[in-house]
Amino acid sequence: MDNDSYGHVNNVTYYSYFDTAVNEHLIGEGGLDPRRDPVIGLVVETACRFHASLSFPETIDAGLAVTRLGRTSVAYAIGLFRRGDERAAADGRFVHVWVDRATQRPADLPPRIRSVLAPLVVQAETTA
User: Fold this and answer.
1) What b/e readout covers 86-120, taking b as 16+ CB neighbours within 10 angstroms?
2) Is the pLDDT at 110 greater than 70, yes or no?
């Protein structure tokens, strides 16, 4: 299902890959339980720039960085790479706002989540 009629990964699938990369880190390293934790991250913004086509069943590696670590929100930079390539096939932006599950109101990032995101903080690129 990843490939479209042109034989390469469909644009919308890249966003799924971004979501997987972020949540893999939050669940695996931060212990996030997306079904039970009282504070969860909601995606409020995404963007993607395409540089080269990918195609299933290629192995795709993802790189993850944090460009902004706020009190209630996190901005991520994600790169998707064909296995063995140093140049990203796509790069994207993904923003979480952390909310109380019951009220859906912004909430502070849980300390264990902040602790696994802090090492990923990099300076955000600026464009002129």
Assistant:
1) eebbbbbbbbbbbbeeeeeeebebbeebeebbeeb
2) yes
CA-based R_g, the chain, Å: 15
Q: What is the pLDDT of residues 35-84, one digit of tens each?
A: 999 999 999 999 999 998 888 788 999 999 999 999 999 999 999 999 99
**Into which CATH architecture does domain 11-120 fall?**
Roll (3.10)
pLDDT at residue 121, as a whole number: 96
**Residue 18 structure tokens:** 């971004």
Which residues touch 70 (CB under 8 Å, ≥6 apart)?
109
Q: Are 108 and 116 in contact (CB under 8 A)?
A: no
